[in-house]
Amino acid sequence: MPSAVGMRVDSNYDLRAQSVDGEPDAFVASSRGTLAFPGTLNIVLLTSVIISTVFLCIYTGPEIGLISSLPYVFIISTCLALSIYIRRRSAFSELFVERMQLILKGVVFIFVALATLRIFNHLTMNLSFPLADPLLNSWDKALGLNWMAYFRFVQNNPPLATLLDVAYIGFDGASLLGFLALVVMGYFRRARYFCEIFLVTAAVATVIAMFFPAVAAVVFNFGNVSHLQGFSSAPGIYHIEQLTALRVAETPSINLLTAQGLATFPSFHAAGGILLIAGFLRTRLFFPVAAFSLTMLASVPVFGGHYFVDVLAGTALALTVSFLNACRPCYHGLFGADPAYY
Predict the structure, then answer these.
(1) Residue pLDDT, tens place only, 133-189
(2) Which DSSP string do the residues of 24-89 spell out, in sequence order?
(3) In this structure, is the dihedral angle defined by the CA atoms of residues 332, 336, 337 and 339, taken in order, positive or negative?
(4) Rounded Cα–Cα distance for residues 44 and 10 (Å)
(5) What are the backbone dihedrals phi and psi of residue 340, each rounded to the nearest 5 degrees, phi first?
(6) Where are the domains of the chain?
(7) Phi and psi (nearest 5°) for 13?
(8) Contacts of 274 (CB under 8 A, 6+ apart)
(9) How far lies 129's CA from each of 107, 124, 125, 247, 268, in Å?
């Protein structure tokens, strides 16, 4: 059956790599069971997001630069062409073909989802919901969370600020590399699980964020940020220009090359850190991935400009999605002690 991204979804991938000395051996096939990629959940959810985005486009009549979509078109078309080429070459081993097909399908799916969700996110910010900053700031105070004290702590420690800045910027690349790493290591079930929890969490976070547009904590607390010291550039304001333009524009304009994520509550960066940890739990890369994710989580209030409640909500959402998806029968044993099920 053709998928929403133009690739077949009935190709199956090994669920269970045989274990050797306690580690999964991706080079040994097993007939234990198979899972299709990207799977029904991913296809249904992505289709729903695409349909919702189309309706929003009809309602708002946006201007989406065709030139800005060319990199996405190039990446997707290249992956599709490579997929056809690899399937037709008999010289490649079966495992290599399976692994490359999964990588190429995953990249296509991720970029289609990324472009669609980014457009959806920007179009929702064109709607007339009031700014939620006073509410979000009051929730921080009600919980006894001192955002300003944390900001000043990071500001007064330049090496820490630099580390957190790098971690925050590196999140998008780390997410894509995470999927690729799982496939390369032979964790095929993990790769699909990881893709699913990212898409579900991103879609839910974007829908919730639609009702809580915000300039976010840095701008709300400081206003003019040009006087801030201790940073190479003012943190937490990367989204302001695009958010302001979308909220006042009669016809929203979106450039996919420069479009920033505009969700404040819940924080998807915070959610993404948890998703990375969940995806790599009980794998060989768990500890370095967890170290990066926790560092990135610490960067979110300052460099993402998020309130602490944004971070808490993003974390809670990611934990919920990760747990519920892991409970599905197709992922039985995924987090068990036997690495052969990973």
Answers:
(1) 999 999 999 999 999 999 999 999 999 999 999 999 999 899 999 999 999 988 888
(2) E-TTS---S-EEESS-HHHHHHHHHHHHHHHHHHHHH--EE-HHHHHHHHHHHHHHHHHHHHHHH-
(3) positive
(4) 15
(5) -65, -15
(6) 12-341
(7) -130, 145
(8) 293, 297, 314, 315, 318, 319, 322
(9) 34, 9, 8, 9, 20
Yes or no: say if 237 and 157 are a contact pair by the CB < 8 Å rule.
no
The values of phi and psi at residue 90, to 5°, are: -85, -10
State the helix-helix crossing angle for 188-210 and 40-60, rounded to 10 degrees. Answer: 30
- Mode of pairing for the β-strands spanning 63-64 and 253-254: parallel
Query: Which residues have a Cβ under 8 Å from the Cβ of 322 and sit 6 or more positions away?
Result: 197, 274, 275, 278
309: CB partners within 8 A, 6+ apart: 136, 139, 140, 143, 145, 265
Closest CA to 313 of 183, 198, 178, 208: 208
The token pair that represents 73 in the structure block? 């078109």
CA 322/CA 306 separation, integer angstroms: 22
- What's the whole-model pTM score? 0.86
Low-confidence ranges of the chain (pLDDT < 70): 1-34, 337-342
Residue 156, exposed/middle/buried by CB under 10 A (0-12, 13-18, 19+)? exposed
At residue 4, the pLDDT reads 38
Residue 164 Cα distances to 23, 176, 262, 294, angstroms: 32, 19, 20, 10
CA–chain centroid gap for 238, Å, is 18
pLDDT of residue 342: 53
